[in-house]
Design a protein that fits this description.
By secondary structure, this protein is of the alpha/beta class. 37% of the residues lie in helices and 22% in strands.
Length: 362
């Protein structure tokens, strides 16, 4: 029996919290025969990559495979296992030996390098394992039966490789210091806000695994996104639909000042998402354009991890979409400045939320 093994591994910090993922596919790629993922504590990228290969070969052997085609996005592992590069690092020598011993159990094993975009399934599993190593995620290892077409997302039952949204709120501005409505106005980050953006950027760079950065057009979000993009070596794309709610006449007012100015409208606005602030935009209107932005990001990036830098209402709306929750969540969910949340959207329409309001890096 011929199978395909796709494997990946990574470390957030190199070395840092590390994990691997591997998937065994039928020769025609029509079925997922097995998959595995595991957090391995603190390790380097290369160690994690080798651990992913070993896990994939073990799964293939357990299935009774006789011929294995290995595909990985690690040039080093592919070249070393193919015998074209020498293994010099002491941490890799025993792992290389273990992988070679496993390979001898098959009639034939080939190794091919593939770009990261074609290794999405194993990459997702490895990122979930790295989340677990970093204390973000939960289960460390799963296996899929032969008839399973792709892996479920925990209790949701969603299948396929998702688009993972890392949702980062912008840093502090003078309006947020005064707890004032800050919508389409364009205040700059304060000194603390810039430090918050830099801290988030450092954390995200250490975390790794981010393929693109998309930002609201407003300066406070764009500057926060630019700090992360620089640390990640990526460019910033702007999506106009990720802009904050237009608070109209309430822009720059405190909660109490808005309530005093328009007591009836403000009271209804706090419980009815169809109500617009005077001259402003309802939360229903925000939801419409944020859904449009989500769909566009998924279409543009597919099975990838995208850093989305925006504001309270758009981020809450994306979390609401991922949870398939009612409008009440908008009024009950709290998001701190420069906080990180994670939502995933699957190709079959399923979704999940993995993290809300992380601020430990600040």
């Amino acid at each position: 029996m011929k199978v395909i093994v796709e494997a990946d591994g990574g470390s957030r910090g190199n070395p840092g919290p590390a994990g691997y993922g591997s998937v065994v596919l039928s020769a025609d790629r029509a079925s997922v025969l097995a998959e595995s993922k595991q957090a391995i504590g603190r390790a380097t990228n290369n160690v994690a990559e080798y651990r992913g290969l070993i896990a994939g070969l073990e799964e293939a052997a357990n299935l009774g495979a006789t011929e294995v085609a290995v595909s990985m996005d690690s040039k080093l592992v592919v070249e070393q296992m193919s015998g074209r590069w020498k293994v010099k690092h002491p941490d890799l020598i025993p792992l290389h030996r273990q992988a070679r011993e496993l390979a001898h159990r098959f009639d034939r094993v080939t190794y091919s390098w593939i770009p990261r975009s074609r290794n999405a399934h194993a990459d997702r599993l490895a990122n979930e394992a790295m989340d677990a190593a970093a204390g973000i995620d939960a289960p460390a290892r799963t296996s899929a039966p032969a008839e399973t077409p792709s892996s479920p997302a925990g209790w949701t039952g969603a299948r396929g490789a998702p688009t993972r949204f890392l949702l980062l709120r912008h840093g502090q501005t003078e309006l947020s210091v005064g707890r004032r409505y800050s919508g389409r106005g364009n205040p700059a980050l304060t000194e603390l806000g810039r430090r918050q953006a830099d801290a988030a950027a450092a954390y995200l760079a250490q975390r790794g695994g981010i393929d693109a950065v998309v930002s609201s057009p407003l300066q406070r979000a764009y500057d926060t996104a630019a700090a992360a993009a620089k640390a990640l070596g990526l460019d910033v794309a702007v999506d106009e639909d990720l802009i904050e709610t237009d608070f109209g006449a309430w822009e720059g007012l405190t909660f109490g000042e808005a309530a005093q100015r328009d007591p009836d409208v403000h009271g209804r606005w706090l419980s009815d998402t169809s109500v617009e602030p005077p001259g402003g935009e309802s939360f229903d209107a925000v939801a419409h354009r944020v859904r449009r932005a989500r769909n566009r990001i998924i279409a543009d990036h597919g099975a990838a991890t995208v850093l989305v830098v925006s504001h309270v209402t758009p981020i809450k709306t994306l979390l609401r979409l991922a949870l398939n929750a009612g409008e009440g969540i908008l009024y009950r969910l709290h998001l701190d400045l420069a906080s990180l949340s994670i939502a995933e959207f699957y190709p079959d329409g399923g979704s999940s939320v993995r993290l809300v309001n992380q601020t430990a890096y600040l």
